[in-house]
Amino acid sequence: MNHKSKPLHPAASLEERTFLALLRAADALGQQAEQLTRTAELTGTQYNVLRILRGAGPEGLACRGIGDRMITHDPDITRLLDRMEKRGLITRERQKDDRRVVKTRITPRGLELLKPLDQPIRDLHKRQFQHMAGAPLKTLYELLEEIRVGEQE
Fold it and tell me: Following CA atoms 36, 39, 43, 47 in sequence, which dihedral angle do they give, to the nearest 10 degrees?
């Protein structure tokens, strides 16, 4: 083989390499968190929904409100909520003043599943970023937020 032959694909741009590195990092971090949520028989998405609903308090949220707060987009949130309701983790109630709106609330059982995960999740995130000093970690956070906000505009 001729060592001076042209590569089959052009070299990846800095933007492409950055995008791929970001996806790989997110996947690695997410897999670790998913292993932890599985100990409570929850998927990462179910865990996210329960955290969102806990934060919403007794008012609960409409399906769209949950979807807007999700970390990853779930095109079939209704089916996800159906499964969670069958497990007794959430309740859904159609509003009397506007029958189109269905409010979702976390149940005591859902709260019970979340509580023992709170500290282990915090500890996991500490371990995941322990190799980074505070200033670079803050810079990374700010840069990621800049990407996220820039995409929303």
Answer: -70
* pLDDT, tens digit only, all 153 positions of the chain: 556 666 677 788 999 999 999 999 999 999 999 999 999 999 999 999 999 999 999 999 998 899 889 988 877 888 999 999 999 999 999 877 887 888 999 999 999 999 999 999 999 999 999 999 989 999 999 999 999 888 766
CB half-sphere exposure, 108, CA atoms < 13 A: 0
Helix count (H) and strand count (E) of the chain? 6, 3
Report pTM.
Answer: 0.82
